[in-house]
UniProtKB/TrEMBL annotation:
It comes from Maritalea porphyrae. It comes from the Bacteria. InterPro entries: TraB/PrgY/GumN_fam, YbaP-like. The keyword DNA-binding does not apply. CDD domains: Tiki. Pfam families: TraB_PrgY_gumN. Keywords: Signal. Transmembrane segments: none annotated. Residues 1-23 form the signal peptide. This is Polysaccharide biosynthesis protein GumN.
Amino acid sequence: MLKTILGTALALTATLTSQTALASSACTYTNLYQEMQQADPSSYAKIKAQADATVNGEGIFWRVSHEDDAHVSYIFGTMHKSDPRITTLAKNVETALLSSKTYAGELDWETTAYEMGLIMGKNPEMMFQQNGEKLSDQLDPHTVEVVDQLLNQRGSDFDQIDPMQPWLSASLLANSLCDIENGVSEFSFLDRVLEIKAREADLKVVGLETVEQQFRAINAIDETFFLKSLEDAAIQHEQGIFDDVLQTASELYVSEEIGAMLPLMMHYSHTLKDGEADLLSFQRELLDIRNEGMVEKAVALHEEGPSFIAVGALHLIGETGLVEGFRNAGYAVERVELQR
């Protein structure tokens, strides 16, 4: 079920994924959320109700201001994808970025490769299983076989992920065939595009987190969550909807219906249920706790001057998200309509 991927896994994704051009027919999918509205209206209504109840569940672009400040800052929700609809910036988003003094992403990508190298050297257990343990020992043989088929479609195979920690293995299945056709590269996804533009404009570039902090957050999540995510991937592949689920998430991002993303993923999960310990562990470690640190650093950056804060869109929503975090710190935060 893991469809939100930390950007740090993209470098490995690019390494393990074949860059051979796919036929255009590979990028075919069904928008499951739209289809559900007609085919399964009760499920659609349930997901929409959950989305509507999500604080700040709509919108990816927000203006931050304070009556005592002469400047404003912006919060922008990203998706770690190379889809041109996602990476092509709205006019007012680019204007806001270039009018800022500081750009803050989740990571400073100029140092990410170096940090990953240090972790692999000093703390390999964060990424790879130890003492000869393998992922295939933790999954049933049929799941291994089907996940191998998914990886084969993406230019890889199960042998390559077998020694990895479950979180990293699950993350490497976060790209649909459409994503691969668009090109999987550490330079092509939205967060990297934003950082490159910021550097070209001589903005100060900082990361709200380090790679090690992200890895430690992921390793704190119950690994059962990621094993179940791989099981879900196998089941969805056999149902013929694996790429549909991934692409529907992208469609929800493009339409700014962020609050519907997790409910939709849960609807198509066969192994995870709301309120289960492993799912709660995922939400707490990957979203709630990290949001707290991001808000603290983002507020400090705004106090220094106009800043452009870009983080994964799921970090914006909910009571612990960055939008509410700024409001709780005394700032006015208003949604800005995108100028396409």
